[in-house]
Amino acid sequence: MAGESSSPPFVTGERVVVAVVVSRVILSLPLSLISHGFSLFLLCLSALLIELRAESSPFLLSRFTARRGASSGILLGAVTLPAVMMSKLVQLTRAISLHQAEHDELAHVTMQYWPASASCCAILIYLSVVMSQAKKDESSSSSVWLARVSLTGTVLYGASCFVSLSMISHTGLNTSLKMLWMLFHGLAAVKLIRHLLCTFPSCASIGEALLVTSGLVLYFGDFLACTIAKICEKLIPVDLISISYGIRRTETGIIVQGLLLGLLLFPVVFKFALHIYESSLTKRDGRPRNCTDTAKSVLFFVSLLSFMVVAVPSWMQFVHDFHQHPFLWVLAFVFSEPLKRLSLCIYWVMLIVVSVSRFYNISRGSKVERILLRKYYHLMAVLMFLPALVLQPKFLDLAFGAALAVFIALEIIRIWRIKPLGEPLHHFMNAFTDHRDSELLIVSHFSLLLGCALPIWMSSGFNDRALSPFAGILSLGIGDTMASMVGHKYGVLRWSKTGKKTVEGTAAGITSMMAVCYVLVPVLASMGYILSQGWWSLLVAVTATGMLEAYTAQLDNAFIPLVFYSLLCL
């Protein structure tokens, strides 16, 4: 066929970096996690085979309209989140050997690793089935070989999953229920990625959608496990079920999880409320009636206020023993150190107002390339989050959740053009978009904020790598920014003939990250942080992250912080 006349290269820069990262993770595993490492290897191999087949015959996944200009990214998307969870397991294993963590915590993270891994595996199986259906007339031996390898990998993956889960005795669940829990995550992931790729065409590559899907399913699954565990605590005697999984949360963690998941579920709630309202109009008038824009706006804001002020806080109080309304707890938390935290809020507001107004005026003049203009926001993220992470880390956890909640609410308003904010917000946000955004869904601001927030959230609890919470700020705010600016102005040698990334930019990014780490380490040491990271391992992590930024065509805000974080934890 014409689509198969020129096959893409087997070895690419992105695949080499992924292989280095996965190898680094697997080689760091203790003997107790060998089955986990075997499953990660199988996942990586399966993702590579499927990516090769998808890119050699692009029409096989033609039912999905991926983001233009990006490779499939299946390999990177499939291994990123499992590698992060594996690094957390390695870190907790060290903590247990030092008697600084309990086995329950290791079991808890293990029950997060396997759902994340199972979600990615299920999506890979789904993509393989889609490609097979799209090419039923394929009779080449390579297709048969790929099918056999995929089937063998799936069987071996299930066996390693079964062995690992049967060894966990701290969750109070038998192996069958654990496997059923993994199956639930896999089916949910397949359903969700189909919905995302069909509802938001041209907004993400397959790999980006895979990462988002596995992350959302893991987050929702954790929410569901938390709720089920609390119900079991109330209904079932404690000696019959262990309730450690899903309910060990801080107040801040519960509030952030409730806010974000509540807003992600709100579109379903609003559509249901809108359907009931339009049905009542039709029943009253005896003919089909659509809701007016004004009535739709009123219904939207009333539903949003009711859902977020009544329903979501009720769940928070159910799963955690708040002695007051969660929002009142937030106010009490902020005013527990009013001078520091209110001063930080004022500093953030002033920086945002000045920066956004300045950058908006520049963007309207169109004298600066959008990609460079967006890097100024990366620098702004450093100015906002770095001081807060050093001085007020707990408050920053809550602030990230609040900021993400505001972003989600505004994006819902923009997509649905809810009056009076929808249309002005759409025009304002378009001033900051580039080729990786679409008018249907603008994700850059989400990815930047999440890229900075996720390493900080995941570093809660035991953490013997003081730099790991700074993974997002360092990789995006420093490394990615310097690589883009230096490469744009001084870059001559390009990494590939078709790409724009330059050797000079990558070198600048790596050097700047190492320089900031060199300054940051003594500051953290003076504040009592645990510093056990060797400079050699730090150099490997920084170099791998810089090379990934140079070679990947995926949304770097999403992948680079997670890869850097996983390497820092080892």
From TrEMBL:
InterPro entries per the UniProt record, alphabetical: Polypren_kinase (IPR032974)
TM spans (from-to): 33-52, 73-93, 113-132, 144-167, 179-197, 209-231, 254-277, 298-318, 338-356, 376-392, 398-417, 438-460, 466-486, 507-531
Protein name, as recorded: Dolichol kinase
Domain of life: Eukaryota
Keyword Ion transport belongs to the record: no
Keywords, alphabetical: Membrane, Transmembrane, Transmembrane helix
